[in-house]
Amino acid sequence: MSEELNSTTQVEHEYGGSEIQVLEGLEAVRKRPGMYIGSTSESGLHHLVYEIVDNSIDEALAGYCDEITVSIGDGDIITVVDNGRGIPVDIQPQTGLPALEVVFTILHAGGKFGGGGYKVSGGLHGVGASVVNALSEWLEVRVHKEGKIYEMKFSRGKVTQPMQIVGDTDRHGTEVVFKPDPEMFEITEYNYDTLHTRMREEAFLNAGLRIHTIDNRSGKEQRDTMHYAGGIREFVSFINRSKDPIHPDVIYMSGMKDDSMAEVAFQYNDGYNETIVSFANNVHTPEGGMHEEGFKRALTTVLNNYGKKMKILKDDDKVSGEDCREGIACVISVKLTEAQFEGQTKAKLGNSEIRTLVNSIVTEKLTEYLEENPAVGKAILDKALMANRAREAARKARESIRRKTALGGAAMPDKLRDCNEVNPELTEIYIVEGDSAGGSATQGRDSRFQAILPLWGKMLNVEKARADKVYGNDKLTPVITALGAGIGDDFDLDKLRYHKIIIMADADVDGSHIRTLLLTFFFRFMRPLIEHGYVYAAVPPLYKLTRGKTTRVAFDDIEREKIAAELRGDNPNAKVDISRYKGLGEMNPHELWETTMDPERRTLKRIELDDAVAADQTFTILMGEKVEPRKEFIERNAKYAVNLDY
Ligand code: TTJ
Fold first, then answer.
1. Whose CA is nearest to atom 1 of ligand 1?
2. Which pLDDT tens digit goes with each residue over 574-601?
3. Residue 172: domain span
4. Domain boundary among 362, 392, 422
5. Does ligand 1 lie within 6 Å of residue 70's CB atom?
6. Phi/psi class of residue 534: alpha, beta or left (left: φ > 0; alpha: ψ in -120 to 50)?
7. Is the domain of 209 the same as that of 326?
């Protein structure tokens, strides 16, 4: 590490035209690219674009640029164009080089060239255009300024064409075109959605800025324009786009102190999730930090005070922080000079002065807002109070489950057909759709180690229901009791009674419904089950083939044809009877055992959720109240939608 820093520092102090030392700086970038852009995988590749765009955004913050275009071309060549003042082209006295050349050949550790607005420091941001240049097979820049077009070209950080005037112009701005170096990156294919999402974020965070993203690659053509006069207010509306708000307006407040400024926008929806998205110097801070803490504290205090004052909260009633944030969609954006990014992924803001700033802005302005908008105040407090009661009911239900478990083991559900073995590592439970399939499974199983729990009828849609309904639900209670490990915060894997939990449902719509509902429930309330790979789907056969006394089964059409041919053998006229299983209920206990339950012969599909967050969103969209986003999602992911059942 010190080696690179040395060569960099040397260059910074001594860039008196010494090309060799300039190149040493960029060589360091090529030697250890990960140190400058985080990684050489997909995220590093996209980071190159953000590095370049950051420069145009600085120009926008300084008030000289209001339009940026980012396009991907064939060969995954990136073009970024802005309508700012254009990078300076005059010769710098210290270096004897055009400022333009300095921007692309000298490492700018942290600080921003040209300054203006808020200096960004920390994280991976602001390492500068020279890093992008060093990691590009080639890069071209054109500056439109004062009637002329100035052009310069590079390859892997080295100048291949010195700055020259290539034409006249009547506009102003900067254009950078680059091709990421395949020698430096594991992959060089850009993902349009990734760039589009990040640019949309930038457009929300910089009210009034217009950003276009364009995919020009053959066969992939698409484009979007993002322009939000309302800034983070519109970000909040965007988060709530498929939800129902409980008050009409997005609440917005901002303020500044010394060199720092903060703005907060939020609106409650009638759901139960908390969505807080925060940024420091336009850098996303998914792990939160001081700005989020300041907001949360102030929100809880203000709502409790207001509730007391308006007599919505009586006597010793109090609403907790969590109660106050149920159903909130909130965006927090702060700007400060010396941002400290902390935590594992440098995704958490550490500056404590920002907590004080956000806290005082929200305390003062939200109090004022609620006084002036009592209807909104009442809606929010009623919701927090409901959340409080639900949490209380959930706690009681949870405790009663816990008590039952503690007192010599819970009474097992009536419907459970338990196994003899007690060591959970050796046992499995089949959760079976319907009483008749449950009956076949009970008769067909090996009762030494296989337990059967039949479920029947439609399940509660857990996404729609709040926690207390799930706790008390009569379909899910037997599942909770049979598994024996509790739920939610109390979930304890050590108490789990079976290490294989096998969902056995028909391959039809009802079956897939029950499977999705159970998985949503496991995901939300017993997530470690999925994380540890304890949950499976049984895979029953689709066809039964009979020739004389021989019977075989097939799991798909290809296998069906193969087995039919085998059964015919050398006798092409032999009659093979093929029938399709309509459901598990059609199979007799023996068939069910042989095809779907016998560990020696069955197929199990392990449920995996390697990206818990993505899965959560998937469930939300698929199970949520709004039909439109769900339809949209299924159409967009038609080819995956089949698997989503699992
Ligand atoms: C700096 O101060 C004098 C006037 O110009 C300011 C400046 O550098 N503006 C500027 C830089 N606008 N856009 C850029 C820029 C744009 C891209 C796409 C890439 C880079 C490295 C800089």
1. 114
2. 889 999 888 888 888 999 999 999 999 9
3. 5-225
4. 392
5. no
6. alpha
7. no
